[in-house]
Amino acid sequence: MAEVPHNDIDIDPDFEPQKRPRSCTWPLPRPESNTGKPDSNDDIIPEDEEDYVTAPSISSSTPVNNVNGGITIPQNTNNLSEHQTISATKEEVLTPTSKEETHASQTHAFTALNGLASQPRKSSTRRNAWGNYSYADLITQAIESSPDQRLTLAQIYDWMVRSVTYFKDKGDSNSSAGWKNSIRHNLSLHSRFMRVHNEGTGKSSWWMVNPEVGKSGKAPRRRAVSMDNSNKLIKGARGRAAKKASLGLQTFQDGSSESLSLSSSLSKWTGSPTSRSSDELDTWTDFRSRTNSNASTVSGRLSPILANPELDESLDDDSIAPLSPMLYSSPSRLSPSTATLGLGDMALTMNLNDGLPDHLMGDFLDNISLTASQQPQGQEVESITNQTGSSVFTYTCPGSSSSSSLVVPSSGSFGPPGTIFLLSPPPSSVASLRQSPMQTIQENHQASFSCLSSRFNNHHTLQDLMNLETHGSQVSDVMLTHSDPMMSQASTSVTLSQNSQRNAMLLRKDPMSSSIRDCAAGPNSQTSSVPGWWAQAGLSTPDNEVLCSSNELSQQANQLLQHLPSPSRNSCMQLGGSCTNSRSGSLLQLNAQDHFPIPADLDLEGFNGILDCDIIRNELMDADCLGLCFDHSPLRSDTQITNNLSTAGGFSSSKQTSSSPSWVPS
DNA sequence: AATTATAAAGTCTGTTATTCA
DNA sequence: ACTGAATAACAGACTTTATAA
């Protein structure tokens, strides 16, 4: 994320105080300070109360983000609109009209907006050089204004520079060191912020706002929190030396107990993090592992969207600045525009990621019409909307009577913003298109391949299956899900554990058809006595490689579907939607048990059992699509899966160092 | 001259501690 | 006592650059 070039001394035209007036709470700069912090001049409160947070990406001059494909992003579909249901004063925050008004509205809006634990700003004067926000507040706002409720450190920097007037001219390296340091410091210090491991190569972690911490009061500082519970072990060992001394212990924990604790803890996290107790949160946030730090990391998660280098580059690209409103907007709020944004984000993401063929996404978007901006919660997604109040949209495919619903969950309720569920499939179609921006690659593979491998014991290789592809009109549904960034692993393991079934995953889109098709099918061969099929499709990967494999697997599954007798196929098209009952479990499942009576004439032998993992592995490798490590055991216990997720991963990235996959591609 | 591998330097990121208001 | 800003020190991860083979 490139910083805004700065060609001048870090002089804030608005504010160059020397000493903090009695009524002013912004800190005095240290005498030796030359890092862009408020410079000393005099004790004058700035007369010019230019808005502190200007959020250029939010300004009315923001271009319309007509992403494409007939999806018109309403102007100012951004932070303004996304928060409008919460507080109209958000706008006031952005465009204060007076000092008093500004501070009042700022305080109110921001507190209301983010549920900040910050105490109301009672002073009418600036608390800091940039306004009444603390660093933590600004960070929170930055994060919450992002579509996915997460930002990298660099993006937070960028947001500061772009959105906070005070920092506008302090983006250069000379003047930014100080406040950037403070940003980092605040991120680390406050338990409000969670660091989510970004497995993108060379990418820094995502920073998210812990929805729970500080919700009902002042957000505790991390240190205070870390002093109890499990961190007692290092309580008395502060400082560098102590830190080093604890390395051994930490290493041990990382290598063993953490996996176990993750496993056990994940089992506790079948629900939304927002519903967790503080103890659980502590437990959860104890899965931290950046360079011996255990302060804030929720490791093992990846956001495929922004972790994608191409997208990151695009984000860094100034030329794409007009898109910033979208990039920083939050579709989490329940507004039509945000839903549209979410879709747009998805489209953008997918396009940028090449995660979805252009024609596919184009068709998809071209054929989407939001016929209901915010319907009552749809029946088909009752399990979701009952808990989340998600927005439901309907999309219709021209030339087809079919329609599906887009479900845009609200933030913090069911999946992070950007989550879109496409449900209510037409009778003749079912599928899922899964967007899980925060799911790790290995998670995807874990969830997909292991499941797939356990589903099918057909004796076809992938190539065989692909060769069987037919070109007739196909129908598929797309389910857009979005795994909780925090809980993608959890959701995976939980899903697996809670449904001792195995998933079939597939994804397919017939380029010749505007409809999306796919249906994954597989016998419920494990435990359920009720014959059932359920499909879980994935389109969530940021990597071409992964998508490649996903497509192949999709095709494979699609071909498997073709093997079904027509009645079965049709039944398969009538999957009912169900969903794991939590934000964390945002991995949506289409459980078709009740809808898929397996016909007696269906020969399950070809599918019953386990698809030799070697087949998939070999085929995938032959396709040169993946750079993965495969766990050798196609079927693992949930504990194993969890452990693998937390350590080596059944399909771990090449970067994984722990554990020892039995097979690693050269 | 081009390629590759390696090391060093620099940068970024993240944590912790301290001081001050 | 607590919060928050400011600052520094430190360390790991990563990137860039220089050098050698």
Automatic annotation (TrEMBL):
<dbReference type="GO" id="GO:0005759">
    <property type="term" value="C:mitochondrial matrix"/>
</dbReference>
<feature type="region of interest" description="Disordered">
    <location>
        <begin position="646"/>
        <end position="666"/>
    </location>
</feature>
<feature type="compositionally biased region" description="Low complexity">
    <location>
        <begin position="652"/>
        <end position="666"/>
    </location>
</feature>
<dbReference type="Pfam" id="PF00250">
    <property type="entry name" value="Forkhead"/>
</dbReference>
<feature type="compositionally biased region" description="Low complexity">
    <location>
        <begin position="256"/>
        <end position="267"/>
    </location>
</feature>
<dbReference type="GO" id="GO:0005634">
    <property type="term" value="C:nucleus"/>
</dbReference>
<dbReference type="InterPro" id="IPR032068">
    <property type="entry name" value="FOXO_KIX-bd"/>
</dbReference>
<keyword id="KW-0804">Transcription</keyword>
<keyword id="KW-0963">Cytoplasm</keyword>
<protein>
    <submittedName>
        <fullName>Forkhead box protein O3-like</fullName>
    </submittedName>
</protein>
<dbReference type="Pfam" id="PF16676">
    <property type="entry name" value="FOXO-TAD"/>
</dbReference>
<dbReference type="Pfam" id="PF16675">
    <property type="entry name" value="FOXO_KIX_bdg"/>
</dbReference>
<dbReference type="GO" id="GO:0000978">
    <property type="term" value="F:RNA polymerase II cis-regulatory region sequence-specific DNA binding"/>
</dbReference>
<dbReference type="InterPro" id="IPR036388">
    <property type="entry name" value="WH-like_DNA-bd_sf"/>
</dbReference>
<dbReference type="GO" id="GO:0001945">
    <property type="term" value="P:lymph vessel development"/>
</dbReference>
<feature type="domain" description="Fork-head">
    <location>
        <begin position="130"/>
        <end position="224"/>
    </location>
</feature>
<dbReference type="InterPro" id="IPR047409">
    <property type="entry name" value="FH_FOXO4"/>
</dbReference>
<dbReference type="InterPro" id="IPR001766">
    <property type="entry name" value="Fork_head_dom"/>
</dbReference>
<keyword id="KW-0539">Nucleus</keyword>
<keyword id="KW-0238">DNA-binding</keyword>
<keyword id="KW-0805">Transcription regulation</keyword>
<dbReference type="InterPro" id="IPR036390">
    <property type="entry name" value="WH_DNA-bd_sf"/>
</dbReference>
<feature type="DNA-binding region" description="Fork-head">
    <location>
        <begin position="130"/>
        <end position="224"/>
    </location>
</feature>
<feature type="region of interest" description="Disordered">
    <location>
        <begin position="1"/>
        <end position="48"/>
    </location>
</feature>
<feature type="region of interest" description="Disordered">
    <location>
        <begin position="255"/>
        <end position="281"/>
    </location>
</feature>
<dbReference type="InterPro" id="IPR032067">
    <property type="entry name" value="FOXO-TAD"/>
</dbReference>
<dbReference type="GO" id="GO:0000981">
    <property type="term" value="F:DNA-binding transcription factor activity, RNA polymerase II-specific"/>
</dbReference>
<dbReference type="InterPro" id="IPR030456">
    <property type="entry name" value="TF_fork_head_CS_2"/>
</dbReference>
